[in-house]
Automatic annotation (TrEMBL):
Pfam families: AMP-binding, AMP-binding_C_2. InterPro entries: Adenylate-forming_Reductase, AMP-bd_C_sf, AMP-dep_Lig_C, AMP-dep_synth/lig_dom, ANL_N_sf, PA_CoA_ligase. Pathway: Aromatic compound metabolism; phenylacetate degradation. Keywords: Ligase, Nucleotide-binding, Phosphopantetheine, Phosphoprotein. Monomer. The keyword Mitochondrion does not apply. Residues 63-270 form the AMP-dependent synthetase/ligase domain. Belongs to the phenylacetyl-CoA ligase family. Residues 319-409 form the AMP-dependent ligase C-terminal domain. CDD domains: PaaK (cd05913). It comes from Ruminococcus champanellensis (strain DSM 18848 / JCM 17042 / KCTC 15320 / 18P13). This is Phenylacetate-coenzyme A ligase.
């Protein structure tokens, strides 16, 4: 993605400010002459920031302004180690709300909509991010948070919610419950804004068809404001990203070198205006690509592809790299298979054993499904797996992110 002159000037000003005061980046960029950065290529030679840096800065080592300017903190879950604390100034909160409002507008959502928010509140950025954007838009907010499906559905019917904000896992759970209870005629949803985890085409079609809604992928991460830094439009051909607030690069995960537009790599983000905890060349671990050309919707903002996976989601089996996106793509072409699966890796008697649990559609011949999936896995992904078809609903549903790959070898 070509850096604009405006982006370069904002980054240069940010770098000068950060290296002239005691803070995380003064130490990180020690020995680098900021005045010698004169081009996009010079900028791309700067070191990356990665999650390990942010964890080492716990609790408030990332803070780049005085305490009196910080109005809020958010945090990553910390389930895989020390949590990452991100401080926000009032302007950071305003900028985030403005970006999120733009997301809703891109999805055709207006102040006449009633937006039911099911992601969690608190330290997590999701719930409050969806809410701040909706309030900036002027829409009615129904701030449910996660869980209590009975109450979710009652409020959805009684309040005539028109927009559902959820993870794909919870949207699927709600869709299945609505179908099971036969209350589809009392649901007024017209759009779903789905984020926080990647999801395959088969799952997308199930949710859209069962809820009768148009779905939009929303993108974001706690370290960079939260959800709302990009969203798909009606044409569903990638996600528009807000390049007036952020600079996006896509790099080769192994070499760290920028790849041409259209090639898949790891997304790297630099904040242009963030005050509380600015980030320079932050490696997200998310795999995507810059989509060349203009979108049919006419938006001036460029697009990245929907997230294809994460560099740290990959598992290696017998020398073969396997990503969840490959399994989801494979399931799309298997008629008897549902969207829901779990991939288990175990090490038994010196061998890696792979087991694919997959929900079988009603009426599917499980023996034929097992054989078809084994053959497809071998031919398309390159390894042999044990396939265990199970009934619809037998695999767990989650109110947050669903774990689909379990590596039990270590």
């Amino acid at each position: 993605m070509k850096m604009t002159e405006t982006q370069f000037n904002l980054i240069k000003a940010q770098l000068k400010k950060l290296t002239s005061q005691p803070c995380f980046y003064q130490r990180k960029l020690e020995g680098i002459n900021i005045d010698q950065i004169q081009s996009q290529e010079d900028f791309e030679a700067l070191p990356f920031t990665w999650k390990g840096d942010l964890r080492e800065a716990y609790p408030l080592g990332l803070q780049a302004v005085p305490d009196e300017e910080i109005v809020r903190i958010h945090s990553s879950s910390g389930t895989t180690g020390t949590p990452v604390i991100i401080p926000y100034t009032r302007q950071d909160v305003e900028d985030w709300a403005e970006m999120f409002k733009r997301c809703y507008e891109t999805a055709g959502i207006t102040n006449l909509d009633r937006i039911q928010i099911t992601p969690g509140y608190g330290l997590w950025t999701a719930g409050i991010g969806f809410q701040n954007g909706a309030e900036r838009l002027g829409a009615m907010v129904i701030p449910m948070g996660p869980g209590n499906t009975d109450k979710q559905l009652r409020m959805m019917m009684d309040m005539k919610s028109t927009v559902l904000c959820a993870t794909s896992s919870y949207a699927l759970l709600l869709a299945e419950e609505i179908a099971k209870r036969g209350i589809g005629n009392r649901i007024h949803l017209r759009k779903g804004v789905i984020g926080s985890e990647r999801w395959g085409e088969k799952m997308r079609n199930r949710i859209a068809n069962e809820l009768g809604v148009q779905l939009y992928d929303i993108y974001g991460l706690t370290e960079v404001y939260g959800p709302g830094i990009g969203i798909s439009c009606d044409h569903a051909c990638g996600m528009h990203v807000w390049t007036d607030y952020l600079y996006f690069e896509v790099v080769d995960p192994k070499t760290g070198k920028n790849v041409p537009d259209g090639e898949i790599g790891e997304l790297v983000i630099t904040t242009l205006h963030k005050q509380g905890a600015p980030l320079i060349r932050y490696r997200t671990h998310d795999l995507t690509r810059v989509i060349p050309g203009e979108c049919p919707c006419g938006s001036p903002f460029p697009r990245i592809d929907t997230i294809l996976g994460r560099t740290d989601d990959m598992v290696k089996v017998k020398g073969v790299n396997i990503f969840p996106s490959q399994i989801e793509e494979l399931l799309t072409g298997i008629e008897g298979a549902s969207s829901e699966y779990q991939f288990m890796l175990d090490h038994v008697n010196g061998k890696d054993i792979c087991t694919l649990f997959v929900e079988a559609n009603d009426g599917a011949n499980r023996y034929e499904l097992e054989i078809e999936l084994q053959n497809a896995f071998k031919s398309k992904i390159g390894i042999s797996v044990n396939v265990k078809p199970v009934s619809i609903g037998e695999l767990p549903r989650s109110e947050k992110k669903s774990t689909r790959v379990f590596d039990n070898r270590y």
